[in-house]
Amino acid sequence: MSVLRPMDKLPDLNKATVLLVSTEDALLQQLADSMLKEDCASELRVHLTKSLPLPSSVARPRIDLIVFVITLHSSFQNVEESLHHVDSNFFLGKVCFLVTGAGRDSHCSVHRNTVAKLAHTYRSPLLFCDLEVESFRATVAQRLVRMLQICAGHVPGVSGLNLLSLMRSPSPPPEEL
């Protein structure tokens, strides 16, 4: 088990791979299915894991985008621990945080501002979506597939770093209440 590096493997021609990290298996599988339904010019590969590090003995393709799916009622600590196993070069436009469960504040163990500070610290995009609603899940799947195509280098003239600069909020994260 080792640190996950963005350039460990050579890219595959017309293939894009996303790694979804979350402890919520059902939501992760639904998101993966929604992503695979999207129209994509390249072959889309979705890998699911509960946490990092990944086992080093398993043969895997190059990972173009890592999406940490944070459910505000349970998985924040898992994401924090997994981030230690990601090389800093991945944070140059190849990591995204997706928060779900934000609409049910009464059930949250983590405040939204805490997640916003985490995304700001790692200079990564932060998306909010209720993955239990099909239409919202389809919309965020479409957005993630487009981000994946850019991170995989399949969109001419745009890189993950360009995308990062376009998606970042210019203001600092909100203060804790």
The gist of it:
It is built from 5 helices and 5 strands; from the N terminus they run βαββαβαβαα. The mean pLDDT is 87. Helix 1 links the parallel strand 1 (15-21) and strand 2 (43-49).
| Structure summary, number of beta strands | 5
In percent, how much strand structure appears in the residues?
15-25%
Mean pLDDT: 87
- One letter per element, helices H and strands E, the order comes to EHEEHEHEHH
Count of separate DSSP helical elements? 5
> What is the overall shape?
globular
Amino- and carboxy-terminal Cα gap:
38 Å
User: Mind telling me the C-alpha Rg?
Assistant: 15 Å
Please list the strands of the largest sheet in the order they lie side by side. 2-1-3-4-5
Major β-sheet profile: 5 strands, parallel
Helix share bin: 25-40%
Question: Regions with pLDDT < 50 over 5+ consecutive residues?
Answer: none
Structural class: alpha/beta
Topology:
Elements lengths: L14 E7 L3 H13 L5 E7 L15 E7 L4 H8 L11 E6 L11 H10 L4 E3 L5 H18 L8 H8 L10
Parallel strand pairs: 1-2, 1-3, 3-4, 4-5
Helix pairs in contact: 1-4
Q: How would you describe this protein?
A:
This protein is α/β, with parallel strands linked by helices. It has 5 helices and 5 strands, in the order E-H-E-E-H-E-H-E-H-H. It has a 5-stranded parallel β-sheet, sandwiched between helices. Strand 4 (95-100), helix 3 (112-121) and strand 5 (126-128) form a beta-alpha-beta unit. Helix 1 crosses helix 4 (134-151). The mean pLDDT is 87.
